[in-house]
Design brief:
8-stranded mixed β-sheet; Metallo-beta-lactamase, Chain A; binds zinc ion; RibonucZ/Hydroxyglut_hydro; hydrolase; 263 residues; hydrolase activity; globular; Metallo-beta-lactamase domain-containing protein; alpha/beta
C-alpha cells in the first residue's frame, strides 16, 4: 500500500509560484486509487511521475479552496474514462459539491453526474468504498464545512488533517493512525489563524495516546524554506519520525513496517 505525493505546498503564494507543487497526494491499495486534494498542476505531476490518472477510482476534496480543488474536474474526467463511463466516487463536503454562500461548487453537476456515487461527508461520518473506509474529521478553516480525513485500510489507518488550525478534536480524530499527513503551513513560532504551525503539530502529537509511526508535513507555505530543520524540530520535540512531503515522495506501508523512497 502506497502514499504518493504530487505536491507539498499550499496557500496562495506557493500555489502561484509552484515551488513545492499543489497536486495533493494519492493512496493506492489493492483495490483503491484515491486522489486527495488535486490542486493546480496535478495532471502535470502525474505525467512526470508516470501515474495513470485513468486508474483513479475515488476523488476526495477536503474544502472549497483552489489549492485543493482546481484539477478535480479533470480527475473526474480521467476517472470516467473521458466521461464515457459512469465510474468512480467523489467524497467531499457541501461547499465543494453544492456551493455555500460565497463558495461556489467547485465540481460541476455535470461532472458529478458521471460518477457512480457522490458522498457529502461531515465530521464523524464514514463511508466504505472498495477496500477502504473514509471518515470525515473536523477542521477550523475558511470553508465552514471543510473536513480532514481518516482512511482505514487493511494495513492500518492514515490521517490527513486537511486545512485547519489547532482544535482539540484533532487529538481524538487522529489518535492511533500509522501515518499522519499534517498540513503545516507555517514554521515554528509563526502561529496564524486557520492553519497549523510546527508548534501546533508538536502540541497535537504530545497529546495523543498512540502517536503515529510517521508524520509527513504537507501544504507548506512559500516562506517555509528550511523544511529539514522543521522536521528535525518536530522530531526532537515529539520523538516522532517526521519527513516533509515532496513531489514524488512515496511512503509504502506494510503490516509491520514502512519504507520511504522518492520517485
Ligand atoms: Zn484552505
Amino acid at each position: 500500500m502506497d502514499i504518493i505525493f504530487l505536491g507539498a505546498g499550499g496557500g496562495r503564494w506557493e500555489t502561484i509560484y509552484q515551488n513545492k507543487g499543489t497536486g495533493g497526494f494519492r493512496i493506492h491499495t489493492e483495490k483503491t486509487r484515491l486522489h486527495i486534494d488535486p490542486g493546480p498542476g496535478t495532471l502535470v505531476r502525474m505525467k512526470d511521475l508516470n501515474i495513470n490518472p485513468l486508474d483513479t477510482n475515488i476523488l476526495f476534496v477536503s474544502h472549497d479552496h483552489p489549492d485543493h480543488y482546481t484539477d478535480a474536474e479533470i480527475i473526474v474526467e480521467a476517472m470516467t474514462k473521458g466521461m464515457t463511463k459512469k465510474r468512480g466516487y467523489i467524497v467531499s463536503n457541501i461547499s465543494v459539491l453544492e456551493g455555500f454562500g460565497k463558495y461556489e461548487n467547485a465540481i460541476s453537476k455535470y461532472h458529478q453526474s458521471m460518477c457512480e456515487k457522490v458522498y457529502i461527508l461531515n465530521p464523524g461520518e464514514s463511508v466504505s468504498i472498495y477496500d477502504v473506509k473514509l471518515t470525515g474529521t473536523k477542521t477550523k478553516h475558511g470553508d465552514p464545512f471543510g473536513i480532514g480525513l481518516r482512511v482505514s485500510t487493511y494495513n492500518g489507518d492514515i490521517g490527513y488533517t486537511g486545512d485547519t488550525e489547532k482544535i482539540d478534536s484533532l487529538i481524538q480524530d487522529f489518535d492511533g493512525v500509522r501515518v499522519l499527513v499534517a498540513n503545516v503551513m507555517k514554521e515554528k513560532g509563526k502561529r496564524i489563524r486557520g492553519h497549523l504551525c510546527s508548534n501546533d503539530l508538536i502540541d497535537l502529537l504530545g497529546s495523543m495516546n498512540k502517536k503515529p509511526e510517521l508524520v509527513v508535513i504537507n501544504h507548506m507555505g512559500l516562506k517555509m524554506a528550511n523544511v529539514i530543520g522543521e522536521c528535525r524540530y518536530i522530531l526532537e520535540n515529539t520523538g516522532v519520525k517526521t519527513v516533509a512531503a515532496k513531489i514524488g515522495l512515496k511512503v509504502s506501508l506494510y503490516k509491520d513496517f514502512y519504507s520511504i523512497m522518492y520517485l
